[in-house]
Amino acid sequence: MRLTPVRFSRGSTASIVAANSRITCHGRLGKIDAARKVFDEMHEHTVVSWNSLISAYFIKQQPQYARNLFERMPKRNTTSYNAMISGYIKLGHLDEACAIFNSMPERNVVSWTSMLRGYIQAGAIKEAELLYCRMPEKNVISWTVMLCGLIQDGRINDARKLFDKMPVKDVVARTSMVSGYCRVGRTAEAREIFDDMPRRNVVAWTAMISGYAHNLQLDLARKLFEVMPSKNEVTWTAMLTGYTQAGCILEAIDLFNRMEEKSVIACNAMIIGFGQCGMVTEARNVFDQILEKDDGTWSSMVKVYEQNAFQLEALEMFRSMQLANVRPNFCSIISVLAVCASLAIIAHGKQVHAKMIRTHFETDVFTVSALITVYVKCGDLAKAKMIFDSFEGKDIGLWNSMITGYAQHGLGEEALQIFHDMHMMGMIPDEITYIGVLSACGYSGMVKEGREIFRTMSMNAMINPTAEHYSCMVDMLGRAGQVVEAFELISNMPVEADAVVWGALLGACRIHKNLEIAEIAAKKFLQLEAWNSGPYILLSNIYASTRRWEDVAKLRQAMSLRSVSKSPGCSWIEVDRIVHIFTGGYIISHPEQQIIIFLLERLDCLLKESGYCPDFSFVLHDVD
């Protein structure tokens, strides 16, 4: 945008007004140097000139220059103070805004409302309520800002009381209540307010349709969508997202095909929808057809590959994203870290770690937790602990990641130390914490400590043990050879044992060759998951180890009749940043089969030469 030059004449009101207008216009366009040049060339400044340049500096996110200008002002009015307060609030500098507000000789409703907005934006709802009660004058904006604050805080009933007291209810206030009710699942009350609205704009319609879709009331959403007088891309996308979240992919496809103009947002929603239904090829087709991809497009495709176990494709997509000079976002970072953890590939994990530092994601607790998981899965516990120790503001998820990491590597004492540190820091453990620490006790043979933690769990943390906690206890007792006690624990469980619990007991029976309890555990397991090959394989190997070949044959026959088959095992290793994948039973199809067979034979010879005598009783026998 090119602005017409202004000729300044000393004392001319018209030229001053024109110059002030140019400062404002340059400021809104982010051209702070041009705005300052106009200001400096003025022969005379009014308070509007100063205020306009102050606002321009805040738009450019240069609060220090705005403050210097404010301090130099020969004369200030209420608008000057309001410009400073509003600017600081928009940048999240609440303390500085408070200082300006408290120094004001006179305040108007704009001053009070700006501070109210600042407190709510910072999540300081109690301070906002106190300020609201002190306000000498309120307008519809003040009422609406406070209303939105209560809704944001999850206090929908208090918001309704305030809404009912409002002398004037505009479309923004009514729409806020519609969104608030929908957010907590009270769509009937949201619809009442929507129906009572004297005037509805596209935002109000979209809020109601989105609310229905978010709560999976898709029939109601679609009926409202069809009678909506004017739809925008947000409305189409809301309806589309509702279908994809509910797994109604055919309806989503139909709606997507009806769209005259398919926005990037709608395409991204469709990519995610296809991914949730396992339709990876279809998701990629939509991705390839988007001409102008945004960061959401790339991260959606990375997520689709990751959640459908296309790990290598996810890594390649993330690499292509960087080559396209697209800055990774939160979703893509989390997805690619999950892939690195799943494959245990440290080199790629370190690359993502470096990218996190460059893009300032290392300050986000969720990405840091995912990063710790990567280092844990790759066996670099020292690095994981270093990241954990250096991160301030640890949440429960971060503590759990570290406890679980130590548990997975059999480091029970280290896991318990983190657990105790948690208590010292005043952090209250959750269900996941206890699963992690009980697992650590099981892997490390710390039965006494595990029993005590399990006993005190419900008393100290007010957590009722779930099937997962009992599974940890069964596994711990089973590893220690106390199979009978583990079986008795299951028999006395206050909750119904699931397949994981019976699987843990069956695994213990295999190790300690307790055939009687193994048969009971396998029967219970198969009643819950008849399609699962695990209990067949474990019980078959127990039978085989005791030479009960007839029973082995019966199990094979049962598997065949029920069309149960064992999925081949899979492993991988990263060498020189290349991931090599190996599938059990398929060596002959591997491109490097000759080298693999040669090395296996060589290892077999070395084992025999060293005097090793293999114990075949624990070999998983072929039951396919």
TrEMBL record:
Keywords from the named record: Repeat
Any matching Pfam family: PPR
Single GO molecular function: RNA binding
Ranges: PPR repeats: 15-49, 77-111, 139-169, 170-204, 232-266, 294-328, 395-429
GO BP annotation list: RNA modification
Coiled coil segments of this chain: none
PROSITE patterns in the cross-refs: PPR
Gene3D superfamilies, sorted: Tetratricopeptide repeat domain (1.25.40.10)
NCBIfam families, per database record: PPR (TIGR00756)
UniProt protein name: Pentatricopeptide repeat-containing protein
Organism ancestry: Eukaryota, Viridiplantae, Streptophyta, Embryophyta, Tracheophyta
